[in-house]
Amino acid sequence: MRFLAPLGLFLVLVVFLAIGLKKDPHEIPSPLVGKPAPQFQLPQLTGADGATFTPKDMQGKVWLFNVWASWCSSCREEHAVLVGLAKTNAVPIVGLDYKDQRADGLQWLNRLGNPYTLTAFDADGRVGIDYGVYGVPETYVIDKGGVIRYKLIGPVTTDALEKKILPLVKELQK
Amino acid sequence: MIPELGHYALILALLVSLVQGILPLVGSHRNNAAWIGLARPSVLALWLLVAFAFGCLTYAFIVNDFSVLYAAQQSNTQLPLVYRIAAVWGGHEGSLLLWLLMLASWMLAVALFSRQLPDAMVARVLGVLGLVGAGFLLFILTTSNPFERLLPAAEEGRSLNPLLQDPGLIFHPPMLYMGYVGFSVAFAFAIAALLSGRLDAAWARWSRPWTTAAWIFLTLGIALGSWWAYYELGWGGWWFWDPVENASFIPWLVGTALIHSLAVTEKRGCFKNWTVLLAIGAFSLSLLGTFLVRSGVLTSVHAFATDPRRGIFILGFLAVVVGGSLTLFAWRAPKTGLGGAFSLVSRETLLLLNNVILVVAAGSVLLGTLYPLIIDALGLGKLSVGAPYFNSVFAPIMAPLLLLIAFGPIARWKQSQPLDMFKRLRPAFVAALLAGAILPWLMGSWSPLVALGLLIATWIVAATALQILERLKAGAMPPRAYWGMHLAHLGIAVFVVGVTMVKGYEAEKDVRMAPGDTVGVGGYTFRLLGVHAVPGPNYSAMIGDVELSQAGKVLKTLHPEKRTYATSAMPMTEAAIDAGLLRDVYVSLGEPLQDGAWSVRVYYKPFVDWIWGGCLLMAFGGLVAISDRRYRIKKLRRGEVK
Question: Rounded distance, CA A66 to CA A155, Å?
């Protein structure tokens, strides 16, 4: 009987590993969900006329806040999905170009298409700290009252968009 | 064309490995000499096919064939040739192919150097290895084909992660894999012994050199990885308890236990079942490590892109290999005899303690590594387990083992007189106590942990020296295995000194420096002369000139670098290290600040190189041990008969 013990132990381990496979270790609950989005004022990426952006500008609208950077390869993956989403006009997307060079950011948008209503430029990453940016890209769903309702770490996929983000946006827009 | 040939060779290799895995096993069961005889030739065929496939992939990298998807992802034309070749195993697909090549090479080595073994035994061992190889080939062909085409071809490749663009990368993974995969030989010997029902001293003796050889590679691989992290990551640390590091360290601990337990099984015939279990365990944990790294179930700095199919495949493979062997164990082990009796104080008891401690230590590291996954699976939330857990659990478990090192070799088999042992080791005892009391005080400050570390190191060195002198006085030169053991134990002492001194006396400063500023640490003064830009082959670098001086005397100028690679925006830190036998001085550039100033980190790390020196000494001890003539003696006799 005791010779079966190693096998038993191993089987328990396999069960845990199998469950672990289904979980995503990068999916981290954000303490910001359910809280008002941190306020800030930043220049826009275009840099034209000293235009700035603050979350107050979006008061009364449901919007997506997408953190990206030209140096981030996963952002390239999600970019096409975002461009597709922008074409449907389902929800406004505000970008945050995080720890980037202005010229690089602009060139990236010119080349790959610009899905953003506007992009705020966070050169030193100060706003990223307030939002607890953990890895670029990240996407927040913010409701009409300026409260963060959902946070997605990692690239936006069609799957995440259809199953999570868009239903939530529709719900919030009612 | 050439990538297709490589792909085709892999498919043929799968067929060959199935032949090798099935026919010799069945043949040795039925005593069919023809089928048994298939084992060796099929190993040679398998090795040639795998080596050919590996060559094809390497060729694609050398000639920048970006119509091969994997090459386009891992390499680009800007990369110097050595790094293009090293890039072959820089990603998932290539590292699996390298893994397979190593497995085939170990098989070839077993086939060549096992002439003195009974043919049926060799056939079983090679058969088991063939099945393992078939599993990996199936994995590569179904989920991780390195020869997949990218049509139309990319004009330029994406380039290797700059973090990996370093000499450390050329040697670290191959070494580590040689160790991981090497345990498959000990595993195959154990399974073969279980299958044949011959768990005896001969089996233990055959397994020993192979186990030690794998252990040497693993030791070197882990040490290289640690050294690489130290000079490349720019944080001055040498071990981070990262899941991937742990994945290599756990098999090392169990492998170390296996080496010691094999000694008992060979000499005294005891612990047979335990030894078999350790042999299965060491390889299973190597596979588990592969699963953890390749499936992405744990977050780690060594993040590879993950594909869920891969995780499922490896888990299934793990379940079949480990589940199957543990079932075989549960079935066969009860029939094994117990071996010679021994009393409470004996070398057997000490080696049993060694095993228990090493296995408990491995278990606690495993638990810490898997804990986040278990808690998440139970739906209890997200957490991570970091260095504080490992440091506070691991060190207290290992400390008694380090004290016992000196007793193991001096104790007699079966029964030993405790009083006699203490009497013979008394001078070492005194020396250790004195060292613990005085040395830390001479270094400037006394603390209990430093005292304990130096006491342990002195104890090991002094006790080892006493035993060697005693043995030499008794006449007759001891065999190489004896020297190997003592060298490895001395390696532990050297390692302990390194860890203790670094932990106890390292100093670091993280400061803002403008050109002309100075900062002092550990009795050294650093003056930042300036930072200037220099272009590299495929990166641009900011190189700092930092003048190092001691007591007003200028020693040298150090050149820490901050590199920005063309293909990745992530800047890389290349620390400048002035290495020395008794201390390293370490400077790394942080971020550029306003007005030409930089954030600069400086470290003073006493005895840090002893950490890796100790590992080298351990590995060298292993090498000396496997060169012992008793592992070759049968071969010579056979030659004489001819």
Answer: 10
List, as one string, the DSSP characters of B378-420. TTS------HHHHHHHHHHHHHHHHHHTTHHHHSPSS---HHH
- Neighbour tally for A110: CB within 10 Å: 9
pLDDT at site B337? 73
Q: In this structure, which topology does domain B1-165 adopt according to CATH? A: Four Helix Bundle (Hemerythrin (Met), subunit A) (1.20.120)
- Which structural domain range is residue A57 located in? 28-173
**pLDDT tens-digit readout, B398-451:** 999 999 998 988 888 888 888 888 889 999 999 999 999 999 998 888 899 999
- Interface contact A25-B296, CB threshold 8 A: yes
| B80 shares contact with chain A (CB less than 8 Å) | no
By the CB < 8 Å criterion, does A23 face chain B? yes
Q: Is the pLDDT of residue B134 over 60?
A: yes
pLDDT at B639 over 50: no
In-domain check, residue A81: yes
A38-88 pLDDT, tens digit per residue, is 899 999 988 777 788 999 889 889 999 999 988 777 788 788 889 999 999
Best of A10, A12, A136 to substitute, by most chain B Cβ atoms within 10 angstroms, is A10
Number of structural domains found in chain A: 1
Residue A129 lies in a domain: yes
Q: Which tokens belong to A16? A: 């845990």
Residue A92 is assigned to a structural domain of this protein: yes
**Nearest Cα to Cα of residue B416 among B345, B328, B494:** B345
ipTM: 0.82
Interface test with B, best of A1, A2, A3, A16 (most B CBs within 10 A): A3
Secondary element (H or E) of residue B224: helix B201-232
Q: Is B316 on the interface with A (CB under 8 A)?
A: no
* Residue B330: how many other CB atoms lie within 10 Å: 17
Q: Is A48 on the interface with B (CB under 8 A)?
A: no
Provide, as residue numbers in chain B, all residues whose Cβ is less than 8 Å from the Cβ of A29.
382
Is A40 in the B-facing interface, judged by CB distances under 8 Å? no
pTM for this predicted structure = 0.84
Query: Which residues from chain A sit within 8 angstroms of residue B322, using beta carbons?
Result: 10
Q: Is residue A7 part of a domain?
A: no
CATH classification at residue A125 = 3.40.30.10
Q: Which token pair is B478?
A: 């001891």
Residue matched to tokens 């990068």: A26
Helix B92-112 to helix B119-143 angle, to the nearest 10 degrees? Answer: 170
- DSSP 8-state symbol, A135: S
Exposure b/e, B536-561, CB count within 10 A at least 16 = b: eebbebbbbbbebeeeeeeeeebebb
